[in-house]
């Protein structure tokens, strides 16, 4: 139980407890001034304990700083899936040093999440931000997977533009190709969504949720890799920065036998996934009874689709990377649905889950080894 000692005997752990209390009060009391204060405190906590870490805080942080120091002196960007991130790093380098670069990655990521939440008219933005930094996927995308962490909220903004701003939706889709490889899953979704009639979306939500459960159960009963691998090889979309096709890249993850993610960690990500999909499952009744709630229906359709790649590749030690694809959409959806339900018991339960997640994250050796 070293994580308990790490958490309760650290400034970060005690600060997190205080932050959780303020966010809880803001969520339950629903007073605007409390919500603004709680939101500011989440930013402050993230700035101090995630943004100010130095290059000795892990190999990924060191790699990002090394990348930044090289790119800030060059305007020659290789045209890859991360082209926008390369431009972002270069522009940050015109103003800030490597510390400013790390801070910018953290703060801008949270600002994008706040922007999406406000556009959805969610009142409990501080709860979304706290949940994001509390669960390991959000923490990881703020510290180790910062390219994906910035790309996913940008892709979500593009999704909402495509869905509701018909005059510019076709142009917005092209940005997906220069964000991050993981965002490519949005392309088949947009295609499927374009040909799906409104009255069929609830049926497809049920289908996607059922397929998620079926794949997870099947992985516990048999090894599906021999069946799935040939299917994936048929996807011949060429990746720009390698000699592999998209299907071959998927198979690299699918057939990997390393023990990088096993046991309790694999089920940790699965439990988070089930937690968020539970809210999608519950939303079906609301969607069925209130057909005029177009955003809820479309959003549930979106999240349930994005969860499928994770279920398909669940056995892989790299499956968590696919879980990250729908982590933020699922998290925001869960609070969006809580907002619609407005049941105090549901908020208490959600806050308790977030607290437990924060205990594990900020009591972990990964966080304890951060240097400032």
From TrEMBL:
Keywords: Membrane, Transmembrane, Transmembrane helix. InterPro entries: EpsG-like. It holds the Pfam family EpsG. The chain crosses the membrane at residues 6-26, 33-52, 87-113, 125-143, 171-192, 204-222, 264-282, 294-316, 322-340, 347-364. This is EpsG family protein.
């Amino acid at each position: 139980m070293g994580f308990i000692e790490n958490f309760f005997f650290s400034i970060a752990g005690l600060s997190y407890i205080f932050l959780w209390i303020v966010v809880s009060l803001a969520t339950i009391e629903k007073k605007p001034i409390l919500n603004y204060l709680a939101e500011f405190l989440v930013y402050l906590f993230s700035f101090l304990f995630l943004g100010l870490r130095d290059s000795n805080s892990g190999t990924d942080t060191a790699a990002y700083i090394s990348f930044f120091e090289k790119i800030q002196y060059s305007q020659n960007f290789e045209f890859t899936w991360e082209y926008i991130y390369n431009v972002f790093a270069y522009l940050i380098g015109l103003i800030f040093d490597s510390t400013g670069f790390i801070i910018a990655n953290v703060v801008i990521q949270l600002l994008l999440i706040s922007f999406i939440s406000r556009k959805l008219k969610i009142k409990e933005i501080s709860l979304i931000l706290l949940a994001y930094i509390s669960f390991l996927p959000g923490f990881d995308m703020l510290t180790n997977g910062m390219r994906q962490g910035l790309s996913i909220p940008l892709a979500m903004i593009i999704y909402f533009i495509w869905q509701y701003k018909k005059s510019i939706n076709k142009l917005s889709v092209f940005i997906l190709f220069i964000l991050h490889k993981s965002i490519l899953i949005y392309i088949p979704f947009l295609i499927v969504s374009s040909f799906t009639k409104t009255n069929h979306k609830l049926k497809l939500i049920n289908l996607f949720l059922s397929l998620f459960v079926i794949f997870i159960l099947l992985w516990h009963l048999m090894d599906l890799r021999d069946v799935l691998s040939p299917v994936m090889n048929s996807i011949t979309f060429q990746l720009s920065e390698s000699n592999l096709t998209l299907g071959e890249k998927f198979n690299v993850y699918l057939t990997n036998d390393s023990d990088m993610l096993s046991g309790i960690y694999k089920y940790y990500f699965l439990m988070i996934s089930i937690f968020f999909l539970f809210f999608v499952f519950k939303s079906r009744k609301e969607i069925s009874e209130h057909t005029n709630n177009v955003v809820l229906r479309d959003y549930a359709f979106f999240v349930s689709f994005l969860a499928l790649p994770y279920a398909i590749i669940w056995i892989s030690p790299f499956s968590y990377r696919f879980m990250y694809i729908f982590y933020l959409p699922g998290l925001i959806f869960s609070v969006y649905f809580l907002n619609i339900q407005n049941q105090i018991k549901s908020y208490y339960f959600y806050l308790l889950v977030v607290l437990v997640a924060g205990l594990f994250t900020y009591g972990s050796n990964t966080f304890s080894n951060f240097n400032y």
